[in-house]
Amino acid sequence: MERKGIIAAGNMLVDHVHQVVDWPERGWLAEITHSERATGGAPLNVLLTLAKMHTGLPLQAVGLIGEDNDGDYIMAMLDQYHVNRQRVERTSFAPTSMSQVMTDPSGQRTFFHSPGANRLLDLPAFERLDDSLKIFHLGYLLLLDSLDMPDASFGTRGARLLAQMRDRGFKTSLDLVSRKGDPRYQPLVRPALCHLDYLVINELEAGEFSGLEMRDSQDTPDLANIAQAAARLLAAGVNERLVIHCPEGAWGQESGQEGRWIPSWRLSQSEIIGSVGAGDAFCAGFLYGCHESRPLEESILLAHACARASLLAANAIDGAKTLPELQQFIDEHRQGLSGAVAVQHIG
Asked: Which terms in the Gene Ontology molecular function aspect does this entry carry (predicted)?
């Protein structure tokens, strides 16, 4: 029987987003004018985006949350969008991971993050997954303390997990957390690469892994360096598809093939309502394209359309569109991407 469906696992959290009248000096008070709550983290953002696309695919969440109100909220959101939550476990040893997000009048956001239960998510949580599903997506390495621990055979426990998922017949996918100057990119990411079918990361993460500058002196994407970073990641073990995305576009490459730069649809700064979760929305579109065996370029175009829709809403989920709406947008605006050209593989 053909496998069908997507599992997304890893960081689950709640964002408490507040608008403040100004950013105060230390020790002083600032008034909060508006507050809202939203789900966050790779698994929830990817799965809820896919659910709102109305793809009809079976969707399953895997994670660890606390026995608290934020945990109740996550469970309710998964139920609302008909995502299987049987493998979302709850613990009394730590609260649900959360972020307090302060947004000043300029739109600048400051994050106060509590890792909570995500630190405790470990290998036993993945033993009873539904093997009829097709893709297993994990996010984010470098922010899952137990899975980032060393492993004598695989390098890290996260790499062991991905190897186990591939042995069980899943196509495996990975996303990373963006942390500038974190020395763990090489030791924690490299062991996982040879157990991956798909790697979807942004320019910051690619730059941290490769040590290359992803932007030139004019602050535009340096395609030569992006291509070189992609070649290094593929050489380190990514088996099928790799994507490095940034606001201006995405570099896509398949193992043994030339890379390709696919520009995105541009938005003015005034059109962008919120950027939180846009990378996860991109990932959701790309994974759907991979699931349906769409060509690489078509998968990236769908990913761009999902990210664009996400940018038009304040949180990671509200902007998500149905698959027919996304496809209609792509078909009507494809000619605006005439700059998409094949670029010779640079190794």
From this structure: kinase activity
CA distances from 60 to 43, 57, 342 (A): 9, 10, 36
Q: Which two tokens stand for residue 4?
A: 């069908």
CA–CA separation, 225 vs 27, rounded Å?
44
The packing angle between helices 42-52 and 278-291, to 10°, is 60
The H-assigned helical ranges of 265-347 are 278-291, 296-311, 323-333
CA separation for the pair 251, 169 (Å, rounded):
27
Contact criterion met (CB below 8 Å) for 12 and 64: yes
Q: Rounded distance, CA 206 to CA 227, Å?
A: 10
Smallest CA-to-CA distance from 337 within 298, 286, 294 is with: 298
Name the 3-class secondary structure at 324.
helix
Look at residue 337 in the predicted model and tell me its pLDDT. 63
Residue 86: how many other CB atoms lie within 10 Å: 11
Q: What is the mean pLDDT of each run of 10 residues along the chain (347 residues)?
A: 95 91 92 91 95 96 98 97 97 96 78 93 95 96 94 97 98 90 89 97 92 93 96 96 95 95 84 76 97 97 93 75 94 69 39
pTM: 0.91
Helix axes 278-291, 296-311, angle to 10 degrees: 150
Torsion of CA 336, 338, 344, 347, to 10 degrees: -10
- Among residues 318, 316, 290, 317, the alpha carbon closest in space to that of 303 is found at 290
